[in-house]
Amino acid sequence: MVTSLAMPTTAAVALEGVSRTYGTGPAAVRAVDDVTIGFPRGSWTAVMGPSGSGKSTLLHLAAGLERADSGRIRLGDTDIAAAGDDELTALRRTRIGFVFQSFNLIGSLTAAENVALPLRLAGREPSSTEVTDILAAVGLAERARHRPRELSGGQQQRVAIARAMITRPEILFADEPTGALDTRAGDRVLELMRAMTAAGQSILMVTHDAAAAARADAVVFLRDGRLAGRLEGAGAATVAEHLVALEG
């Protein structure tokens, strides 16, 4: 069983002996179990595994959205496992982008206002051009004044992606970013992600889609909260076969 993967010398984010358990006693679930792994700067890594394998928990821990029970988590040279709440909030506003599976848009704000929100929270007033350009990049320039209830699920997902990208974060964490999108919109988002890594940003993406995972530089597999393999440069068919073998 794989419990660790080689730590890159320069990691965008690195986990060392990280564990997270939910519940206590007989009902306790070890969602992430003593994981050590590093993700190189400027790289795009997909995380896959059977349902309940710990993918989303790993993503939340790496982004500082949840606290680990044990181990260290470093964002560059910053130990986020030891950071206080205020420091974590500042990191999420300035260095981290996160695309939530449930979108997490604010219903009272327009698409443009949702996208601009991270910059405003960080104390910077974005220009209208800046917001329009990022919405255009995800194919939603004409929906800038619409509120979430006036948008389809796929459109809301693209607004959430634009919101995470507008700060140009060091690392983008994305939980099923193409899950609610049709093929054309999904391809557009994946192309944007590739452009991000070309500009030196890093991406850690959870997905069930083998075709989306194959667009990444590497695919890391989890099973029962532990690392269960890694593929680099693999096609969608190979990625799917590996996932099916784990599920079996």
Automatic annotation (TrEMBL):
Positions of the ABC transporter domain: 13-247
PANTHER family referenced in this protein's UniProt entry, alphabetically: ABC TRANSPORTER RELATED, IMPORT ATP-BINDING PROTEIN
Listed InterPro entries: AAA+_ATPase, ABC_transporter-like_ATP-bd, ABC_transporter-like_CS, ABC_transpr_LolD-like, MacB-like_ATP-bd, P-loop_NTPase
Designated name of the protein: ABC transporter
Organism classification: Bacteria, Bacillati, Actinomycetota, Actinomycetes, Pseudonocardiales
Gene3D superfamilies in the record: P-loop containing nucleotide triphosphate hydrolases (3.40.50.300)
GO CC annotations, alphabetized: membrane protein complex; plasma membrane
GO MF assignments: ATP binding; ATP hydrolysis activity; transmembrane transporter activity
Keyword vocabulary terms for this entry: ATP-binding, Nucleotide-binding, Transport
Pfam families, sorted: ABC_tran (PF00005)
